[in-house]
Amino acid sequence: YPWRHAPETQLSEFNLTEIEAVLGSYTKVLFVRDPFQRLISTFMQGMGSSPSFSSFVQDVLDSGQQKARVAWKPLVSLCRPCLVQYDYVVMFGFLRQELAHLLRRAGLPWDSLLSKFTDTQVQWTYSWLSEQMFSELSLQQKKQLSHFYRWDLAAFPFPSSFLSD
User: Where are the transmembrane segments (predicted)?
Assistant: First the structure.
């Protein structure tokens, strides 16, 4: 359906037959990240107007899943992993390893492209930052966040997520 395909075309604009054809013609890669780390990143980028992380989290919880902004909306509601058969799911924290595999599969020179790329420091930083930010939250907020992201936590393996407990 090239006549309907443009960079700004949303998948929802196609009918079911067209969606199947479009999705079947692409290699589908889904990048996933621990929902708590997504919240921290969103807060750190100043995408919320809250003065503290705890008040930002409360704003997120108060918005509810239906009115949530894309930056913190549960991934399952954005990418529909139960409906779309992704060819690859790449986890934040294993990017170097998984991107090398993807680039090799695509026949691209992965060693030169990823030689400077490392996510070990990123993992350590987010681990430390997650611990600090999580300690700011009340027990009620922690429970509500775990419930808010329950489908993401069930769909993807985030073994070290603070929300998994």
Answer: none
Containing domain of residue 43, as a range? 11-155
How far lies 89's CA from each of 3, 28, 31, in Å? 29, 9, 6
Does 160 reside within a domain? no
DSSP 70: T
Q: Which residues are registered as beta bridge partners of 89?
A: 30
Q: How far is it, in rounded angstroms, from Cα 114 to Cα 95?
A: 10
**153, 35 Cβ separation under 8 angstroms:** yes
Tally of domains within the chain: 1
Local structure of 133: helix, strand or coil: helix
Tell me if 1 is assigned to some domain: no
14: enclosing H helix or E strand = none
In tens digits, the chain (165 residues) has pLDDT values of: 455 556 677 777 888 888 888 888 888 888 888 999 899 989 988 877 789 999 999 999 999 888 888 889 999 888 888 778 888 888 876 666 777 778 788 787 766 655 555 555 566 667 788 889 999 999 999 999 999 999 999 998 887 888 886
34 near 42, Cβ under 8 Å? no
Helix (H) or strand (E) holding 88: strand 88-91
Whole-number Å distance between alpha carbons of 103 and 82 = 25
